[in-house]
Amino acid sequence: MTVTVTEAHRTIDAVWRIESAKLIAALVRMVRDVGLAEELAQDALVAALEQWPSAGVPSNPGAWLMTIAKRRAIDHFRHLKMAERKHEELGLDLETTQDAIAVEPDEVPDDLLRLIFTACHPVLKTEARVALTLRLLGGLTTDEIARAFLVPESTVAQRIVRAKRTLAQKKVPYEVPVGAELAERLGSVLEVVYLIFNEGYSATAGDDWMRPALCADAMRLGRILAGLAPQEPEVLGLVALMELQASRSRARVTADGEPILLMDQNRAKWDRLLIGHGLAALARAESLSARRGPYTLQAAIAACHARAGTPEDTDWARIAALYGELAQVTPSPVVELNRAVAVSMAAGPEAALPLVDALTAEPALARYHLLPTVRGDLLAKVGRFEEAEAEFSRAASLTRNARERDLLLARAKQASAGNA
């Protein structure tokens, strides 16, 4: 059946988002080169763009793309005069899969896991891991990644090129780590996925408070990872955390995109389906291990909010205790700041203010805008409005997000009015 060019391109875009990660993963296993695998996959995409509008979309588009990519691989090895054995292996593989699914179903999970661990390898810088993961596993273009993180497209392109070159130069094995290395490497993978989610949930810069597409990409990656590693509690903990936080997305901004703080949100707008999925993932994570990891603990905190029908119903004492447990697992001044907020809600601002004051000497929080934000809030609650105004103004000068800056300046103005 023939389709219009617009319909074909829309279909190709959807197919690419679904199939690209599996396609690249299978190709890396064959050619043992991430850069080359992506080039071959892109060649297959170009072929689809050229042929599908006139020839029609094939019944099995994923297999079609794989077949084209394998043909390009054979051509590549011919031109480079690679070992005849490799050529014959690829040729035989092509012949036996030409009219069927290009990758055996049992191989798909292994290939995807290998690709995830390769793209998130610690040998790469964090920003390179993020860019490469979105490119290879998220199916995003360089331009889409650049727009999502508000950086020049050339910067993202350079990060991706350097990441591929580093993987090749360091001879990073295309494999799933085992033993003690697995936990360390899995932590790197989860860090990348959560960084992507957080950038979508609370954008660090720009004019938008949220970038929902990035949240969706991160949740999709998390669900893929959970499907591939269903017995890893922290994977499920991260999925639970993202889904519980994302459930509040519709209530976090006004129609004009202005931020709405948690205590002021209309909880009727919270997504109950996502909350149900998140709570189920959290229960599963907690059932797999008696010792909760950082993502599972953060999901448990998010669950306290999700279960509260009104702000007054929130179990702040439990949240403070969970932050205390989190501080034992991953000591951090940011965790302590969040614990102080929970303490203020459970025991009053007077109990929390000394905890926050102690954090003002932390070098890691010197440019962290949420420290003066929290301190300003506590100072306003105890009637120290002049100090609160100064803290909110300082927080506004530190944030790079325009929506957040406007909110903080408004709070500084409120504190000034209270002082008057």
From TrEMBL:
Name the keywords, alphabetized: DNA-binding, Sigma factor, Transcription, Transcription regulation
- Segments crossing the lipid bilayer: none
Domain RNA polymerase sigma factor 70 region 4 type, chain residue ranges per copy: 116-167
Task: Provide the DUF6596 domain boundaries.
Answer: 185-285
Instruction: Show where the RNA polymerase sigma-70 region domain sits.
Output: 23-79
Xref: Pfam families: DUF6596, Sigma70_r2, Sigma70_r4_2
Q: Which PANTHER family match?
A: BLL0085 PROTEIN, BLL6612 PROTEIN-RELATED
Q: Which NCBIfam families match?
A: sigma70-ECF
Family, similarity comment: Belongs to the sigma-70 factor family. ECF subfamily.
Please give the name of this protein. Answer: RNA polymerase sigma factor
- Could you tell me which species this protein originates from? Amycolatopsis thermophila
